[in-house]
Amino acid sequence: MISNNMEKALNEQLNAELFSSYLYLSMAAYFESKNWFGFAKWMKKQSEEEYGHAMKFFGYINEVGKKVTLEKIEKPKNEWQSHLEIFEEALKHEQYITKRINDLVNLAIKENDHATNNFLQWFVKEQIEEVSSVQKIVETLKLIGDQAGSLFMLDHELGKRE
Ligand code: FEO
Predict the structure, then answer these.
(1) In this model, does residue 61 exceed pLDDT 90?
(2) Are the CB atoms for 58 and 68 separated by under 8 Å?
(3) pTM
(4) Where does ligand 1 bind, in terms of residues with CB under 6 Å?
(5) What is the pLDDT of residue 162?
(6) What is the mean pLDDT of residues 52-78?
């Protein structure tokens, strides 16, 4: 049995995943506007993934007989100063999402909610990947500094994301 408290927390996470999707879409729009199409494609894919995460919560909440309640999605930032600033923000955001997922697991354990704990384990694993992939890009951007040629190469590389 899923508690009302857990239902609320799951709906809040659904909203946080939708915001993630919106934030990465805003980052994609920024890159598009600056003609960095590889970076833009990577961010669009990231945004789609986040929408997928939100839909996993949507599906689970319904599956356990609770109700999805959609709330307002916060307006994302839309201006940045550099590639590095964007990816550092993405990294901070993923660390924040990881904390939220861990808090949800803690709540499931506290409530003896094994079903939700089991459902959340997919996200625990996914967050390791999410943080790691953004972290790698942050490190690469730090190495690149202001070498335009290397930045173009990274743009080409990230544009290959399927
Ligand atoms: Fe859905 Fe990037 O966490």
Answers:
(1) yes
(2) yes
(3) 0.96
(4) 17, 20, 50, 53, 94, 97, 130
(5) 87
(6) 98
Using a pLDDT cut of 90, give the percent of the chain over it.
98
How confident is the model over 132-156, as a mean pLDDT?
97
CA–centroid distance, 138 to ligand 1, in Å, is: 17
Contact call for residues 154 and 142 (beta carbons, < 8 A): no
Task: Pinpoint the alpha helices (H) of the chain.
Answer: 4-33, 37-63, 83-110, 114-144, 148-158
Mean of pLDDT values over 93-103: 98
Residues 6+ apart with CB under 8 A from 19: 73, 74, 76
How far apart CA 100 and CA 4 sit, in angstroms, is: 18
User: What pLDDT score was predicted for residue 124?
Assistant: 98
Residue 93 CA, closest ligand 1 atom number: 2
CATH of 4-158, one of 1.10.1610.10, 1.20.1260.10, 3.10.310.30, 3.30.499.10: 1.20.1260.10
Nearest protein CA to atom 1 of ligand 1, as residue: 50
CA of 1 to the centre of ligand 1 (A): 26
Structural domain spans, the chain:
4-158
Contact, 38 vs 157, CB < 8 A?
A: yes
